[in-house]
Amino acid sequence: MPGKTPDKEPVENGGYRGGNDIKDKKPKTKKSIKDNDDEMTVVVPPSKSSKQSSAPPPNDGDGDVAMDDSDKAEDGAVKVDPVVQAINDIKGNFALLDRAVALFDARFSLRALRSISSIRKRLTPDILAQAISETYPANSSSSHIALLLLSAIGQGDVSLGRQPGPEMEIDSEPKGAKTAKKDAKDIIPEVDIFLGILALVHLFDTKQFQRGFELSALLADHVQSLNRRTLDSLSAKVYFYYSLFAEQLPPTPPTWQSPALAIRPTLLSALRTAVLRKDIDTQASVIVILLRSYLQTSHIAQADLLVSHTQFPENAANNQVARFLYYLGRVRAIQLSYTEAHEHLVAATRKAPTSACALGFSTTATKLLLVVELLMGDIPDRATFRQPAMEAALHPYFLLVQAVRVGNLEDFEMTIADHADTFRRDGTYTLILRLRQNVIRTGVRMMSLSYSRISLRDICIRLHLGSEESAEYIVAKAIRDGVIEATLDRERGFMKSKEIGDVYATGEPGEAFHDRIRACLDLHDESVKAMRFPMNQHRLELKSAQEAREREREMAKEIQEGDLDEDDLGGEFEGM
C-alpha cells in the first residue's frame, strides 16, 4: 500500500508482514490501547456462544421468536414438526390417487394404501381433522363426506376450508401435497375413500368399534353407488374393515345375533356387483370375508356352495390368494378331503408374506398343515418346529407329533388334555380328535416292523385297548387299508408280518418326484401370470410396424418412378 513500508504491508487472511515476532498472541478489540500509530489493530467479532448467552434472539413482526442456528440440525436441515410431517404424508398420497385416475393404473392406489402402515403410528384425531379441513373447501360438493368423517372421529366442530399455515411451506414438502388447494370440483372420490380408510384405521386402533362399524357401513354404501375401476383396491379395504368391525361388536360369532351374520346379505350383494363390474379386488376380498364368516359359524355346506358357485379371480392380490387357499384348505379338511386340503395349505404357506407382520397368518396356516399331514398318515419334518419365530407357538403340536410318531396312545391323550385350550383357540381341536385312529394304526405298524409275530393280547396291552376284539378289528382294518403288510390268524390269535420289500421297486419314489415337478411347474406358471407389462404396448408396436411398412411402400414406389435410387438410400434398402 502507498505510504507504508513494505515490511508492514498487510496480506490476505489477516496475516502480518513484519520483521519482529508478535509477542501478544491474544486478539485485540477496539477498546485495546495502542502502543503507537503504526501498530495494526485486529478487530475480532464476538463468538456465537457469547451472542446467544448475552442477548436473547430478536422477535419478528408477529412477536414470534425468530429461528436461529440452534433450531437447525447439525447437517443444516430445518427440523420439521412431526404433526406437519404427518399431514404432509397424508396429503402427499393425493398425487398418487390423481395419477391412478389419470393413467388408469391401480398400482398408484396400492402405493397409497401401503403408506398407511407408516402413517398409522402417527395418526391422531387432530392430525386427521386438520388434513380433512385443509383438503375440503367450505363450499365443496363433497363437504358432506368431510363432515361425516369429522363427526366419526369426534371432531365435528372443526370448520372446513382451513388454509395451511406458513410452517407447511417447507422444502421437504412431498410432491402433490398442494392437491388440497385445488377447487372443490377437483376433489376425486378416491380422496374421499382414502381419508375414510384412515378414519377407520384410527377408530379400530382406539377400539371405537361402534363408530367404526357405522362409518364403514356408510362408506360401503357410498362405494357401491360409484362405478369406478380406480376405486377397486380402496373399496376392497372398506369391505375388509366393514367385516372386521362387525366381528368385534357384541355378541361375537358364532352367536346368531352377531352383526357379522347380519351383514352377509350386504356382502353377497357386493360380491354380485363386483362380478358384474369385473372388480377383481373387491371380488377377492368379499369371497375371503364370506368364507371366514361361514367358518366362524361352522356353516361348512354354505362355504362349499360359495366356492363351487363362484370363481376366485386369478389376478387377485397375493395376500388374498393366500387367505383364500387357507380357508379352502380348512373346508376341505373338515370334509375329510385331506389330500386336497394339504395341497391348498402348502400353497397358502408358500404364498404367505415373509415379513414379520404376517407371522400370525404363517403360524396359523402351519398349525393346520401339521394336523392335516398327521391325518394323512405322514410325519411332518422336524425342521418345521425349529423355526425361531414359530418354535414356541408350535411346541404343543411338536408333542402331538411325537405321540403320533411313536404310536403311544397314552401320551397322545395326555397331550390333548394338557393343551386342549390351545387347540380349541387354534380351531384344530376337532381335527386332532380324529387322530386317535391314526395313533393306533401307527402303533400297529411299529409293532409289525418290530415283531414278525405278535399276539392280539399283547397288541391290546401295548395300545391300551379295551378288548382283544377291538385289537382284531383295528389290525384287520390296517391290513385292508394297506398300512401294514401282515396276515391275521384269528384261530390262534396272532398277527404275522410279511417280509418288507424294496421301496424303490414300488411307485412311491416316482409319485414323490412327480409331486415336486408339478409344484415347480405351478410356481413357474403363476410367476409368468404375475408379470406386468406396459399398457397398450402391443398397440404401439403394431402402429410403428405399420408406419414402417408404409414408408417402405412409398420408397419403393418412388424408386419405380425414378425419383429415388439405391444410392440415395445409403445402400441399405432391400426392397419389399
TrEMBL record:
User: Which N-terminal stretch is annotated as signal sequence?
Assistant: none
Q: What spans are recorded as compositionally biased (Low complexity)?
A: 45-54
What GO molecular function annotations does the UniProt record carry, in alphabetical order? Answer: enzyme regulator activity
One term under GO cellular component: proteasome regulatory particle, lid subcomplex
Q: What Gene Ontology terms for biological process does this UniProt record contain?
A: regulation of protein catabolic process; ubiquitin-dependent protein catabolic process
Q: Keywords in alphabetical order, please.
A: Proteasome
| Pfam families xref list | PCI, Rpn3_C, TPR_PSMD3_N
Question: Where does the PCI domain lie?
Answer: 322-502
Q: Entry's InterPro entries?
A: CSN3, PCI_dom, PSMD3_C, TPR_PSMD3_N, WH_DNA-bd_sf
Region: Disordered; residue ranges are 1-70, 545-576
Please list the residue ranges that the record marks as compositionally biased, kind Acidic residues: 561-576
Q: Where is the composition biased (Basic and acidic residues)?
A: 1-11, 545-560
Q: Which PANTHER family match?
A: 26S PROTEASOME NON-ATPASE REGULATORY SUBUNIT 3 (PTHR10758:SF2), 26S PROTEASOME NON-ATPASE REGULATORY SUBUNIT 3/COP9 SIGNALOSOME COMPLEX SUBUNIT 3 (PTHR10758)
Would you identify the family this protein belongs to, as annotated? Belongs to the proteasome subunit S3 family.
Stated name of the protein: Proteasome regulatory subunit C-terminal-domain-containing protein
Species? Schizothecium vesticola
Highest classification ranks of the organism? Eukaryota, Fungi, Dikarya, Ascomycota, Pezizomycotina
